Amino acid sequence: MAIFAAMDAAELKQYFSSRELPTEIRIAPHMVVTNVPEFLRISFICIDMWEKDVEKCPSWVRLQLLKDALEQ
């Protein structure tokens, strides 16, 4: 797994809203996002509902994987 520079949910929202996003992207060898806008929408809902440390939220981890994939 990649090592992530910590970004909070607001920073991630800003990051993704400031980029042109593909419709589909592979974020890990075993994960393909087939609808990026819907993936982002659902991921941020899950993060908003998460009550523990955000860095332990599976949706936050997947958003970090998406960010990493976009930067490669």
Structure, described:
Residues 7-72 form the DUF6965 domain. It comes from Sphingobacterium spiritivorum. It holds the Pfam family DUF6965. InterPro entries: DUF6965 (IPR054238). The structure is a single chain. The chain has three helices and two strands; from the N terminus they run αββαα. The protein has one domain (9-70). With 72 residues, the protein is mainly alpha-helical. The chain has helices at residues 9-17, 36-49, 58-70, and strands at residues 25-28, 31-33. It starts with 8 loop residues before the first helix and ends with a helix. The chain has a two-stranded antiparallel ribbon with strand order 1-2.
Q: State the order of secondary-structure elements, H for helix, E for strand.
A: HEEHH
Q: What is the helical fraction, as a range of percent?
A: 40-55%
Uncertain residue ranges? none
* DSSP, total strands: 2
Strand fraction equals 5-15%
Shape: globular
The major pleated sheet works out as: 2 strands, antiparallel
